[in-house]
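Case study B.
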Amino acid sequence: MLNTQEILDRMSEKGLRITDQRRTLAKLFAETDGYLSPKDVYEYMGRQYSGLSFDTVYRNLRVMHELGVLEQIVFEDGMKFRVHCAAGEHHHHMICLQCEKTYPIHFCPMPMTDVPGSFQVVKHKFEVFGYCETCQREDHPLKSGGNE
Amino acid sequence: MLNTQEILDRMSEKGLRITDQRRTLAKLFAETDGYLSPKDVYEYMGRQYSGLSFDTVYRNLRVMHELGVLEQIVFEDGMKFRVHCAAGEHHHHMICLQCEKTYPIHFCPMPMTDVPGSFQVVKHKFEVFGYCETCQREDHPLKSGGNE
DNA sequence: CTACATGCAAAGTATTTGCATTGCA
DNA sequence: TGCAATGCAAATACTTTGCATGTAG
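Model:
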């Protein structure tokens, strides 16, 4: 998983300017295990940048996603972001429905899935949802995170 | 997969009233293989009901989802609905990125996935995205459907 | 200095709610 | 006939865009 400096380097390489706000954003994502919604980010950033506007948050999330430093996934309650997992190691995730932290699953079902030759596979998704050890000790208010 | 009458019966059992509009909705979903967005539904229904309003479509989709006759899934471009797959046969789907039709995969990776005992599994998702035979013959304009 | 980043305001889109009217059961 | 379903209008998110100003490089 990328650290703060790696995120900034990556952005800088691609010609993006490193502003104070982007430095904070990079740090926030580097230090967060789970997913963050634009609102989460806005609220966190807002504590340090009084005049912060939502559109800047959205713009930065979008560029960082396009640039590949962030992953974007759509939960039932909206889109969320997290740092991109290090490239090269294909894996899937267990996602906690409570805290939304993710844990890697290195097993990939794809090779043993029997897909008819007539279907041209582009990508796949395998996600396991539940409650992580920490959250099991606490209560589980109903919260959604995915399907089936 | 439920047919028109089964959908209506199910709704009627639960105390919902069978209006003309709901009859058409049931038929639409019973005869559609892929996913439909609220907008798709609105446009289709609008051809037969001139004064149709969007909120009624949303309300009916919601009720039918809560009732279990429709499945709701969130794509990157919004939520979509389809008839609920017949109960009892656990399976996953291949989803065409072009036409959004789905094809069953009876293989389930869950039993062979090594989940630490400390993680309490609630549900899982395994989806394969690509292009179905029919759509491969045509062009593939960029279209989104899921992650990873 | 120049081009990109930001804040502000406003526009878009998607979805939900309140209320009066209509119509199924 | 009574209560749920509908249409209409307006409210509420959520996200994007245009433009003037500020600032990294």
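The first helix of chain A runs from residue 4 to 13. The remaining cases will be described in the next quarterly update.
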